[in-house]
Amino acid sequence: MHASSLVDSPGAALSSALVPPTDGPCVEVVDASTGRIVHRVTEYGTKEVDDLIASVAGAAHRWRALAVFARTEALLRWARELTDRREELAEFVARETGALRAEAALDVDRAVDCIRYCAGLVGKVDGRVLAGVPGHFGHTVREPYGVVGGVAARNSALSTFAWQAAPALAAGNGFVLHAHAEAPLGPLLAARLAEASGIDALAAFTGPESLSTHLAGHRSVGMLVYAGPADTGRKVIRASAGPIAPLTLNLASGNSAFVLPSADLAAAVPSVLHSRFSCAGQNWFGVSHVYVHVSLYEEFVTRAAALARRITVGPALDPGALMGPLPSETACERLAEAVAKGVSEGAEVHAGGRRVPGLEGGGYYEPTVVTDAGPANPLRTEPVAGPVLTVSPYTDAAAAEANATRSGGIAQVWGRDAGAVKELADRLDVGTVWINTHDALSPEIATTAWRESGHGTAGGPDALDACTRTKMIMWDVTPLAGRIPAFTKIATRTDSEGSRNA
């Protein structure tokens, strides 16, 4: 049992930096459920970030030089620290994001699982032996970049941090995170616990959005792992062109679900709605639109609307709530405007569609089910951060319509006809397909994004490979005379014979 709290008192300045920042402005962290300021975190500038990167770069050399089992044990100690602080961390995450306490605790658990999984992969990043060329012997090795930079989104910030940092550390890199200014507490406190566990090659800071591009363009950052909005992601891509740094991108975009004629609605409806309405529609892996076969469409909409109306909305720490608030009043206002615009262009609201009456201080919005939002409706074409699910019927063109959106993240397919499910899964232009499930996240399983949803892999052994670069080492063991006979002949001449051109 720990004797002291991670944060001594509300309003304390927090920093997990290895090099303390100079005095300066603070980021005010707001309780999403009440709108009140609960903590203040030191805001970094470019000079402090540069110092932090330099410090982590030095620590990364020491980290990589440690024996495999020493690095493994350090990662496992970090996982144990997070587990010991689970309830405390969950409360911080719930307050700053609006996620329910149980959802925040699950975020901590996912972080722990990822760190433990990656601890088991330390020292197991292997190369290849190439022996196909006669007289030659070659092999490849996978080497770390040195320092990997990370940018975390506001939602699922703690688990995202772990999914970015743990593979980088396991591969022998140092890691520096730019935590989102609206949800920095979880990552900053997790980084502090990592340092206490003996991992000094990891640090986190927070500050304005411009620091993401500064991190991406830094010459000492070998690669960058980004999670967040597509607009900021494009800026990060442009910044990374300076040092020509590789990127792994998880860009916020709309995911789709497909309900086939053979689907079990008793399982599909609550699962699809939970996918969208958990964390108030903030989960990056949740669906925003569902295509339902015409034979099940009316029943799906009826069931979905009825279930949405029964979802209790309340403060994040209210044990009776089934959905918490959006992160802020501003986010709630943006959502209300988006729904109003969608309705003005033909969409119909079947459940929800308004602020929750009787709740003040937080961004409380009702779980909302919408139909008749065509492919050109803004509720379909623009990212909608919040508990709004759009539903449309389909006959046989659902895959083509979904592929036309350019989103290529995660698709859910619901159905009991294995042939039809496989046929649709093969036609979808997405990186990941989940069949008859709405949450298949696991550190052992790779999740891949395509097209405008991002690039690269999270989870699985491939995540470690992404944090390393390949070096080719080639040996030529043939006799010199067999390689360059003309030069070999003159190489054996004595200096007294002089130059041929003399």
Q: Which structural category fits the helices and strands?
A: alpha/beta
Number of strands: 23
- What level of helicity do the residues show? 25-40%
Round the Cα radius of gyration to an integer and report it: 26 Å
Order of the strands making up the biggest sheet: 13-14-15-12-11-17-18
The rounded distance between the terminal residues' Cα atoms is 87 Å
Number of helices: 17
What's the gist of this structure?
The chain is of the alpha/beta class and 502 residues long. Helices cover 38% and strands 21% of the residues.
Structural features:
single chain, 502 residues, alpha/beta, 7-stranded mixed sheet, 6-stranded mixed sheet, 23 strands, 38% helix, disordered N terminus
Structure notes:
The chain has 17 helices and 23 strands. The protein has about 500 residues and is of the alpha/beta class. The protein has a 7-stranded mixed beta sheet, with helices on both faces. It has a 6-stranded mixed beta sheet with strand order 8-7-6-9-10-21, with helices on both faces. A hairpin with a 6-residue loop joins strand 2 and strand 3. Helix 2 runs antiparallel to helix 4, helix 2 crosses helix 6 and helix 9 crosses helix 10. The radius of gyration is 26 Å and the shape is globular. The N terminus is likely disordered.
